[in-house]
Amino acid sequence: MDRGDELGAALPVWWRQMLMSQRRETQRVLAELMAMRGAMPLLMKVRNGGQWTAAERTELLLHMRRMANLSPYLIALMLPGSVFLLPAYAWWLDRRRLSRRD
Description:
102 residues; mainly alpha; single chain
């Protein structure tokens, strides 16, 4: 057992749940950002004189949907004092997920 597990066991249950929720959401955001790595060259293809194929248009649509799913995170990070709101925001997102039964 490492030091992190020992400290986690000493924390109240609600705090551990909040930390787990925050870690899960962080992993989700990072996974979405990593999946969008090819979006910029694809967007610039038309600007550089190329044309999009039907498959590339479908891929662009998927990238736009990913960005739309991340927009609540980005808006919350741009607000003044948002660092202090992040734990409440993570809790709210977790509650929303539970109500949808994902």
